[in-house]
Design brief:
With 78 residues, this protein is an alpha/beta fold. It is built from 2 helices and 4 strands. The chain has a 4-stranded parallel β-sheet with strand order 3-2-1-4, covered by helices on one side. It comes from Escherichia coli.
Length: 78
Amino acid sequence: MNNVLILGAGGQIARHVINQLADKQTIKQTLFARQPAKIHKPYPTNSKIIMGDVLNHAALKQAMQGQDVVYANLRGKI
């Protein structure tokens, strides 16, 4: 597991997952959120941020390219 996509990265539970992976430099996190300003700062050095909505299938498909794991921290109708 090297590339991890975290959907709903601005959520409260996702914050814990992001922090757990922050010190693992062999892991590259992609933080996917509708409102990146809600992602807890400071951002981990092993992360990049993508603004997007999981309901936008093209954006989601693009974000999933090259990922080994997708963690979905989502709620509501998807």
